[in-house]
């Protein structure tokens, strides 16, 4: 018969204990302490493997290495496969940068549309009754290699957006 504290330790060992944020080596030591020599190492090894992430389990499951070697390997695998939270913070910077670039591009397109609208309004002698299509800088250029401004305005373009291969005619 087990005492209450031994039964509690056994319950923890068989079900409640998890890897969490700790290293596999720390989990092994905790499990070894809870077993207190009452459980064979091969059974303890099997319970320990079940609590490891899939990446570590996959590599270690068929290993014939001694448990000490497996523990070192498990620590390395988990460290490589599951980097710390600090690495995730570094990865957040490029996505924030990408979001800002997209916002700047959207604002640039709006400003270009406003400039074109202002040009069209300020052109004297233009009849409003013409059914000429309006310039939209968000549309793709009609001539490959030319920017949207040169595709629409040709020699009269006041702006150019790289890359553009338009050459002014003489």
Question: Any overview of this molecule?
Answer:
The chain has 170 residues and is mostly helical. Among the domains are: 4-81; 133-170, no CATH class. The chain has helices spanning 4-16, 24-35, 41-50, 54-60, 67-81, 85-121, 148-153. Helix 4 packs antiparallel against helix 5. The longest helix has 37 residues, at 85-121. The protein is rod-shaped.
Termini separation comes to: 103 Å
- How many DSSP E strands? 0
Measured by DSSP, the beta-strand proportion falls in under 5%
Low-confidence stretches: 85-90
Radius of gyration: 34 Å
Query: What characterizes the major β-sheet?
Result: none
**Order of helical and strand elements:** HHHHHHH
The residue-averaged pLDDT reads 77
Helix content: 55-70%
Q: Which geometry do the CA atoms define?
A: rod-shaped
Fold blueprint:
Elements: H1 4-16, H2 24-35, H3 41-50, H4 54-60, H5 67-81, H6 85-121, H7 148-153
